């Protein structure tokens, strides 16, 4: 009789635990822990990787040695693109913002320079036509706002260290 009561009690406990109430914790955004290694995913989404790589490359390129002039209200600009990254970049979109003597922003021009700037190099652009500029513009500043990230270029191999001093010569004794 005690055995029967024990079995019935066990069945009642099992039924109570499994009767429609899911007691397992709910995770709103489950993480596949098999794809994680010290915070980095082994097989990340290629689109995410590409977007991150593009952002890093675009953040590293710069525009230096900027100068400009206006003749007949047409702006020509000279500048140098500097690309310290390991990727070629091309078709760089440049935006120049112009201001009046009072400092008020009065105009801007955006143009694409269809050139390739190789990895770890720079490229000088001279007398590039940026289009019409407001006749009262006295100052201008330009920045790179977009570019196409191209091929990866592996860094050149580091030279092997040269032996210091004279080579040793052993004379027979």
Describe this structure in words.
The chain is built from 2 helices and 8 strands; from the N terminus they run H-E-E-H-E-E-E-E-E-E. By secondary structure, it is an alpha+beta fold. It has a domain of 90 residues: Immunoglobulin-like, CATH 2.60.40.3230. A 3-stranded antiparallel sheet has the order 3-4-7. The protein has a 3-stranded antiparallel sheet with strand order 6-5-8. The protein is flat and about 110 Å long. The chain starts with a helix and ends in a 21-residue tail after the last strand. About 7% of the residues have low confidence.
Structure characteristics:
Immunoglobulin-like; three-stranded antiparallel β-sheet; about 170 residues
CATH class annotation of the domain at 63-152:
Mainly Beta
Rounded mean pLDDT is 83
The SSE order reads: HEEHEEEEEE
The total of beta strands comes to 8
Summarize the structure.
Helices cover 18% and strands 44% of the residues. It is α+β, with helices and mostly antiparallel strands.
Draw up the topology in text:
Elements: H1 2-18, E1 36-37, E2 40-41, H2 46-60, E3 62-71, E4 74-83, E5 87-99, E6 105-117, E7 121-132, E8 139-152
